[in-house]
Write a structure and sequence with these properties.
Number of strands: 0
Oligomer: single chain
Number of helices: 2
Order of helices and strands: HH
Keywords: Membrane, Transmembrane, Transmembrane helix
């Protein structure tokens, strides 16, 4: 029983260390992702405003 507990500990401890080690990186990537989503939405709004003007090629 004790051997199985140590086995589980040594299998899952690198995973736990990896998660805590990369937590800050993941957090900063989520913040950057949110900023990029805001930027994309603002660019889409600008594009939607400009689209009716550029959709008439005969003018």
């Amino acid at each position: 029983m004790l051997v199985s507990i140590w086995y589980v500990f040594f299998i899952f401890s690198p995973c736990i260390v990896f998660i805590f080690d990369n937590y800050e990186k993941i957090r900063s990537m989520e913040e950057e992702n949110a900023k990029l989503k805001e930027r994309v939405s603002s660019l889409e709004e600008i594009h939607a405003k400009q689209k009716p003007e550029s959709s008439n090629p005969t003018a």
